[in-house]
């Protein structure tokens, strides 16, 4: 929002929310119906192509968003290092408003303005006119309009909304108040109107000009330098005809320089070129990827989780996966296709997120496999290979700790990681699976005064440690699974025999639940039961008369930077215990491994985590 919002700040369809696209429906239906029912000579191809063009613009922008977030997470060629937070993601959530607006304007013009329908596919003279009208009138008018928008009166009411984003993402380019967008569209329409008045308009000149705008806007705001120096060497005048990402980035950090639209020529002409433009371009172009101190290794979960990945849809990534909107189900063909593409074409981990905390540079790497792939022996072999490659890559980059935040089959994966480390004793990297902190979080989520808890679901390293710790504290632990009871007895018989109980009773008010906690069991719980997950998958919330705790996690300190996406099902600025564990190990400088059967001291890591600024989440136990 602008500092002092002026009139026509909001788009008129803001109250409609995501239903704003219903405004397009009549035009789209009419376009398709007319194209299918009219004779070939009467069909208006221009009208029919408007909707596919709208979709292509969205895809084009989304590709830039994903590419930008991937490149800036890795760090190579990144221009500005400052963090992006949830506030910016929320402000830029409606980047598609300008696409919807132009779509409506194109449909209206096509149906009412002479010369906008039945356009030829190509006219060379019209394309030349469009190029010259842009290079001259559009660029000059934009330059002086832009300077005017930086005057205090207009800046505080309109343009400051755009400049709220010091660190830009591709979609930042189109985040403007409604009145400002209208001014831009009036200016950008000059080449179109000229071509139409001269009878030289064509489909390519119309849609191609918009595609050029989209490309240049995304390029200028992507926050990584991508324009090769060789282009300017081959054709030196290009320096005055095409800006670079670093060129426009300076405008967002210094405000009063580099004001041109896409042609730096006008900044050279009017003396507003920033003196550090060439230097920043060289530095950004040569910048190498960062060396992380801590790497968090994770993977995709459900089919729709790819949209919630930070490289996916920014607005969805900023919310927990459990809040995925209903209309995402309509994308199931795209979702299925994306799963196949990810599975067959990606064989290496991807850097998906970069964070900074205190002196640590943190990165999250995702294995491009879904939860269902862990059940496939062939895929599991591929996953093990990717994990080993990730360990070697993290070691090569100089990382101190790699956390195995793998959401499925974690016990087996961790044992194989331990074997890999034993086979490669020269590695300095510390592997941490986070079990000790996850167990500590579960223990500290149990309300004081509890005397009896039940364990449901698969027995894991975390649940075993929690059960033993509770028994040692004199708290009775019951399980209805004979296999779980036998395994715990065999492991710790002398220490827990008095407090470990095999029972089918469902009267306990505290249930510790794991991955195989079924719906039938959940319905047997008494009213007011508190379900505390000890795995990374939360149970399905079936009972309104019971309480559900989060999976083991803690809230991030205020100074934890660049946190602009949610971790799986967790709320904003909440981080899983598995991920936090590696951060704490690195901050404390502990020279220990925690994978396979190895377990770190729960009390020690709990106290260290609190001292490092992480805070436990509140546990609701009252209606």
UniProtKB/TrEMBL annotation:
Family to which this protein belongs: Belongs to the sterol desaturase family.
Transmembrane segments: 19-36, 126-145, 192-212
Assigned keywords, A-Z: Membrane, Transmembrane, Transmembrane helix
This protein's GO CC annotations: membrane
Signal peptide per UniProt: none
Positions of the Fatty acid hydroxylase domain: 138-272
UniProt-annotated location(s): Membrane
Very-long-chain aldehyde decarbonylase CER1-like C-terminal domain: residues covered: 454-616
Example GO BP: lipid biosynthetic process
Protein name: Very-long-chain aldehyde decarbonylase CER1-like
GO terms, molecular function: iron ion binding; oxidoreductase activity
Membrane topology: Multi-pass membrane protein
UniProt organism field: Heracleum sosnowskyi
InterPro entries (alphabetical): CER1-like_C, Fatty_acid_hydroxylase, Sterol_Desaturase_Related
């Amino acid at each position: 929002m602008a500092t002092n919002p002026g009139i026509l700040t909001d788009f008129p369809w803001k109250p409609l929310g995501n239903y704003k696209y219903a405004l397009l429906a009549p035009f789209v239906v009419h376009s398709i119906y007319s194209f299918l029912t009219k004779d070939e000579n009467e069909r208006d191809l221009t009208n029919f192509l408007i909707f596919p063009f709208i979709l292509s613009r969205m895809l084009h922008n989304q590709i830039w968003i994903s590419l930008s977030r991937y490149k800036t997470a890795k760090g190579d060629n990144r221009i500005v290092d400052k963090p992006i937070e949830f506030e910016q993601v929320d402000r830029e959530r409606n980047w598609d408003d300008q696409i919807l607006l132009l779509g409506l304007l194109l449909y209206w013009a096509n149906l009412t303005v002479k010369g906008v329908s039945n356009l030829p596919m190509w006219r060379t003279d019209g394309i030349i006119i469009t190029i010259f009208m842009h290079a001259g009138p559009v660029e000059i008018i934009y330059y002086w309009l832009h300077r005017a928008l930086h005057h205090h009166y207009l800046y505080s009411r309109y343009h400051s909304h755009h400049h709220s984003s010091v660190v830009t993402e591709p979609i930042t380019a189109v985040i403007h108040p409604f009145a400002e967008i209208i001014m831009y569209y009036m200016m950008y329409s000059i080449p179109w109107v000229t071509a139409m008045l001269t009878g030289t308009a064509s489909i390519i000149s119309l849609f191609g000009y918009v595609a050029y705008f989209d490309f240049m806007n995304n390029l200028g705001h992507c926050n990584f330098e991508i324009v090769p120096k060789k282009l300017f060497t081959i054709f030196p005048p290009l320096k005055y005809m095409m800006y670079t990402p670093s060129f426009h980035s300076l405008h967002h950090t210094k405000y009063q320089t580099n004001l041109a639209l896409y042609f730096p020529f006008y900044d050279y002409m009017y003396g507003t070129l920033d003196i550090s433009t060439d230097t920043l371009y060289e530095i950004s172009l040569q910048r190498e990827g960062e060396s992380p101190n801590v790497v968090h290794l994770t993977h995709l979960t459900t089919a729709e989780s790819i949209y919630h990945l930070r490289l996916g849809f920014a607005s969805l990534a900023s919310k927990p996966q459990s809040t995925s909107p209903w209309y995402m189900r309509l994308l199931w063909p795209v979702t299925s296709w994306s799963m196949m593409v990810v599975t067959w074409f990606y064989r290496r981990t991807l850097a998906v997120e970069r964070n900074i905390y205190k002196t640590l540079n943190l990165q999250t790497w995702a294995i491009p496999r879904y939860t269902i792939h862990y059940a496939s022996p062939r895929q599991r072999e591929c996953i093990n290979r990717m994990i080993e490659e990730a360990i070697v890559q993290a070691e090569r980059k100089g990382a101190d700790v790699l956390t195995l935040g793998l959401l499925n089959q974690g016990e087996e994966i961790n044992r194989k990681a331990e074997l890999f480390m034993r086979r490669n004793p020269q590695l300095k990297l510390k592997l941490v699976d986070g079990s000790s902190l996850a167990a500590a979080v579960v223990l500290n989520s149990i309300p004081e005064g509890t005397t009896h808890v039940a364990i449901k679901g698969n027995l894991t390293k975390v649940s075993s440690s929690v059960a033993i710790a509770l028994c040692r504290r004199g708290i009775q632990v019951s399980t209805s699974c004979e296999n779980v009871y036998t395994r715990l007895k065999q492991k710790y018989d002398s220490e827990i025999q008095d407090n470990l109980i095999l029972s089918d009773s469902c009267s306990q008010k505290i249930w510790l639940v794991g991955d195989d906690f079924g719906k039938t069991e959940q319905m047997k719980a008494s009213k007011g039961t508190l379900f505390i997950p000890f795995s990374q998958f939360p149970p399905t919330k079936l009972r309104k008369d019971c309480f559900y705790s989060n999976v083991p996690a803690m809230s991030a300190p205020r100074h934890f930077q660049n946190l602009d996406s949610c971790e799986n099902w967790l709320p904003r600025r909440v981080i899983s215990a598995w991920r936090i564990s590696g951060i704490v190990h690195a901050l404390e400088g502990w020279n220990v491994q925690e994978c396979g059967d190895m377990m770190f001291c729960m009390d020690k890591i709990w106290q260290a985590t609190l001292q490092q600024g992480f805070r436990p989440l509140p546990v609701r136990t009252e209606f």
